[in-house]
Amino acid sequence: MLTEEEARRYSRQVALPEIGVEGQLRLAAGRVMVVGLGGLGSIAAYYLAAAGVGYLKLIDRDRVAVENLNRQILHSTFDLERPKPESAAEKLSRLNPHCRIEAVHTAIEDSNAAALLADCDVIFDATDNRETRQVLNRLSLRRQVPFVYGGISGWEGMASTFIPGRTACFSCLFPPHAETAKPAPPPVLGPTAGIVASIQCLETIRLLVGCVPQLAGRLLRFSGLTMEFRKLQIDRNPGCPVCGAPAG
Amino acid sequence: MSVCIRITVNGLPEEVSPSATLADLIDRFREMDRDLIVEHNGRFVFPQDYASTGVAPNDRVEFIHPNFGG
Ligand SMILES: [Zn+2]
């Protein structure tokens, strides 16, 4: 049951037939691990908390730096040098006291990933590099938890939802290889992050309320230069060294 | 001498050998990104199939660079 305050708080989305009171209660029971609280994570954590997702685990190893502030709108000039999870948790608990926030200031690696995931229902990728995404992919497959990928670069971004056992995995698309040199951080425009993270949020909400995710097995690409969205079907790769899809 | 065929690469018309494979095109267009995604006539191509996938007249090939920023 929603309290009277909750019924009012969420009334505009409860009005959606795909959500309703039932869906809202599922959101309240939902547990999402948001990895990265930068450009994507700022938007993601804000929308998920506002929508009434009951529990957010916020993970980031960084502290707020001034060059983050063109896009990482969860943090402000007053937060410089603060750990990002702590800065984020403060705003989110003010936004929605019904949302339980756990802030973890750490780097996620294979060694701690399973413990960090605990019993979260969705892995929300808001990281800024390929290697951490490989960690999240392995975690997703090992624990059979959906992995909502999003990435941005300049005016462009892409997103996909990986469902273990059902769709391609991140490594079907990007087979692991040893990185020769750490790539320089790409240029990023705030609104691009906003668009991609918002799409990931829609997918996450769909997953939590039990709607079919629209980007399962599909890669959605957005270009802010042409204002075009394009979708590409991604099948499981029979040669994937990570999810080991059987041939055929 | 084989006659070149016309295909579209990244939205632009190109002339290539009728025996060209996707691997050849990646080479020719100097696509060095190891995380490159190749779309061939609207379909995603697995990297292990680049060398064995040929092109036909009017095919469309897109080289997509991954976005890994956040
Ligand atoms: Zn795979």
Oligomer: heterodimer
CATH topology of chain B: Ubiquitin-like (UB roll)
Largest β sheet strand count, sense and barrel closure of chain B = 5 strands, mixed
- The CATH class of chain A turns out to be Alpha Beta
Helix content of chain A: 25-40%
Element order of chain B: H for helix, E for strand: EEHEEE
**What ligand species are in this complex?**
zinc ion
Strand segment tally of chain A: 8
Shape of chain A: globular
| Residue-averaged pLDDT of chain A | 96
Question: Ends of chain A: how far apart?
Answer: 46 Å
Characterize the structure shown.
The complex is a heterodimer of chains A (248) and B (70). With 248 residues, chain A is α/β, with parallel strands linked by helices. Chain A is built from 9 helices and 8 strands. Chain A has one domain (4-233): 3-Layer(aba) Sandwich (Rossmann fold). In chain A, 37% of the residues lie in helices and 19% in strands. In chain A, a hairpin with a 2-residue loop joins strand 5 (147-153) and strand 6. The termini of chain A are far apart. The mean pLDDT of chain A is 96. In chain B, 10% of the residues lie in helices and 31% in strands. Chain B has a 5-stranded mixed β-sheet, with helices on one face. The longest helix of chain B is centred in the middle third of the chain and has 7 residues, at 22-28. Chain B is globular and about 45 Å long. In chain B, 20% of the residues are buried. Chains A and B meet through helix 4, strand 5 and strand 6 of A and loops of B. The complex binds zinc ion (ZN). Zinc ion binds at residues 168-169, 171-172, 237, 240, 242-243 of chain A.
